[in-house]
Design goal:
about 35% helix; 20 strands; single chain; alpha+beta; 7-stranded mixed β-sheet; FAD/NAD(P)-binding domain
């Protein structure tokens, strides 16, 4: 009987498989999508995520990121990372590098979805296959979370993300976050001749229209769009709990606040490591406390920023405040960049 089945072969699922293989567990992956998987995301890896990936033997290409810069129509504020460099990496590049590492570790991937889960007490039966544990890393709208009845209504205003790539040389080594009344636009250098552009907003309009609210940025984006626009949302997702018997939820499947602070991958990797440690110790219930310990700082910062910036008057003061209080802004960026 297999020790662990991992549902979902995005970055967090692949990391879960790598941690499990390193722990000596008999592990396999299931993923309904074929080939290299793309997704709407900001594509910026915080220093903590870069370090975690290096620990797994994964060092994808991309472009170095030295910090975060906030901008509005008249001001800017920036803070350099204090704990090493981040990395701008196209999602497809990251997925390919991690998939290669999983294959090299001898982990098998089966192209199918999880459709049924039966708890037999001492083990699970997942789609007629026995396994001791299941870790679900199957994304924002997790089918496993839904199958187990772990969905929890999200009361916050709905927010959505869209992303494309523009063929233009990066003009900075920082991730730029442009603020406007309609939302935030993120620009991430991902190659010497390419930037990723993502917009987060509660307004569901085409990406081209939303970018019109960022005239200063639009003037910078003179190159052609070289990837199709991808979208994601609603971003806010909640789970009643992260452990149900022998099933554990990691990454976006475990619940998600917003992409505003850009910590998704770093936090997901830390959750993957903690979930595997709980499984390897034969104490899956211990993961619930680990999940709360790992995520409290990120959730607190993200929720506080989301709540305050819903008010237009406060939103208009975000960049001026960051510029006027550089030490505070730098400390906040340092908190986001540190390992989970």
């Amino acid at each position: 009987m297999r020790d662990l089945l991992v549902a979902g072969a995005g970055p967090v699922g692949l990391a879960t498989a790598l941690y499990a293989a390193r722990a000596g567990l008999d592990v396999a992956l299931v993923e309904p999508r074929d080939g290299t998987i793309d997704k709407a995301c900001g594509e910026g890896l915080m220093p903590g995520a870069v370090a975690a990936l290096a620990g797994l033997g994964v060092e994808p290409g991309g472009h170095p990121i030295t910090g975060i810069r906030y901008l509005d129509q008249s001001r800017s504020a920036e803070a350099a990372f204090r704990r090493g460099l981040g990395r701008g990496v196209r999602r497809t590049t990251l997925h390919s590098a991690m998939s290669d590492a999983v294959s090299a570790a001898g982990v098998k991937t089966f192209q199918r979805a999880v459709r049924s889960i039966e708890d037999r007490g001492e083990h699970l039966v997942v789609d007629d296959e026995p396994t001791r544990h299941l870790i679900a890393a199957d994304g924002l709208h997790s089918p496993v979370r839904r199958l187990l009845g772990l969905e929890r209504p999200a009361s916050a205003p709905r927010r959505y993300g869209q992303r494309c790539h523009v063929a233009v040389a990066p003009w900075t080594s920082m991730v730029e976050v442009h603020w406007s009344p309609v939302g935030e636009a993120y620009v991430t250098p991902v190659a010497a001749d390419l930037v990723g552009v993502a917009v987060l907003s509660d307004t569901r309009r085409p990406l081209e229209e939303l970018l019109g609210a960022f005239p200063g940025l639009a003037r910078r984006l003179e190159g052609p769009v070289v990837s199709r626009v991808r979208g994601a949302g609603p971003l806010r997702q909640r789970a009643r709990q992260r452990v149900a018997g022998r099933v554990l939820l990691v990454g976006d499947a475990a619940g998600y606040v917003d992409a505003l602070t850009g910590e998704g991958i770093a936090l997901g990797l830390a959750q993957a490591r903690a979930a595997v440690a709980a499984v390897a110790a034969g104490r899956p219930q211990a993961y619930e406390a680990a999940w709360r310990r790992l995520g409290w700082r990120s959730q607190l910062l993200t929720q506080a920023l989301l709540t305050t910036t819903r008010h237009r008057a406060v939103r208009a003061r975000v960049v001026p405040a960051a510029a006027a209080l550089p030490r505070v802004f730098g400390a906040a960026v340092d908190q986001l960049a540190r390992p989970a």
